[in-house]
Amino acid sequence: MSKKTGVAIFGLGRAGSIHIMNCIKNFRIQVVWLIDVDLDHCKEIINKYCLDGTRCCTPNETQLVFDDENVSAVLICSPTFTHENLVKTALENGKAVFCEKPISKSLQATKECYDLSEKSKLPLFCSFNRRFDPSISSIQEQIRQDNLGKLYTIRTCSRDCPLPSMDYLKSSGGFFHDCAVHDIDMICWILNEYPKSVFAVATAHDSRIREMNDWDTAVITLKFDSGVIGVIEISRFSEFGYDQRLEIHGKTGMLTSNFQFQDSTESFTKSGKLSTPLKWSFNSRYAESYVNALETFIDAVRTGKTLEICKRSTVRVSEIADACEESIKLSQLVEIHYSED
């Protein structure tokens, strides 16, 4: 396939602003449509980046997009509540789908979306982008090569920065389905297994989040059949930057991925050592992973390559997040019975 892949991007908010820039820079992609409630913002992007031939419309006019034969794939970055309908409509109209998580708030609807993808023979890519971060994928490869021998523990720390808007949090799907799923997916992918039980504790330090019946700080423990114990610490707060760490302890040693600084400059004086601040948010910390995830999706669209993030993995991560919420409400360990074998 020598022709560029025509894409339509739904939503130009937190994630959409990342994907539009990566699409513009990608030599294999032609941005055909931008869809957002703010048409002026769409037009600003089209003018600023000289996107000749790119059109824009509101979510009420999406059939124009689905009827366009120049569109081979869609990127769904709109609010969570819109995902399921857009995924199904896109697949029904012959478009491959790249979707920010979650595909749907409903497990049954998520399964239906994947079943439709299989029936349509079109890729459905749920973007758990941490898998595509170079340091994390390097650790996963070393674990696959058994470099640490028997594994004992795996730990992650994910502290968000800055705190998202309350409007975003209200429609995010909740703390565990918005934040924890990334760590859950990463751990399960690295270990190549899923936990048999979870125990979680959580609280809400921010009264506004508490009023939503949600949480902003939590610790999760996961027990695997192999004997590995997983620990996830997540928080909506980190005043010093985007704090992302991973540690795996095994018989022959340890692997780590630490937080990243804005650059490598260090200042040494008699008062001590100073470094630049941490990368501020997810868009800078995981910038390369977003590029790599998009490339993986485009490869699948253009060559038919099988996607590693599949129905089974996506559904199971959601089931684990559900089990975490249940554990908090019951104040007890929860055994997980997976629906997808």
UniProtKB/TrEMBL annotation:
GO biological process, alphabetically ordered: NADPH regeneration
GO cellular component, one term: cytoplasm
Family annotation (InterPro entries): Gfo/Idh/MocA-like_OxRdtase_N (IPR000683), GFO_IDH_MocA-like_dom (IPR055170), NAD(P)-bd_dom_sf (IPR036291)
Protein keywords: Oxidoreductase
Gfo/Idh/MocA-like oxidoreductase N-terminal domain mapped to chain residues: 7-125
The keyword NADP appears for this protein: no
Residue ranges constituting the GFO/IDH/MocA-like oxidoreductase domain according to the UniProt record: 139-255
Gene Ontology molecular function: nucleotide binding; oxidoreductase activity
Protein origin, superkingdom: Eukaryota
UniProt key word Iron: no
UniProt record similarity statement: Belongs to the Gfo/Idh/MocA family.
Protein name: DgyrCDS641
Organism: Dimorphilus gyrociliatus
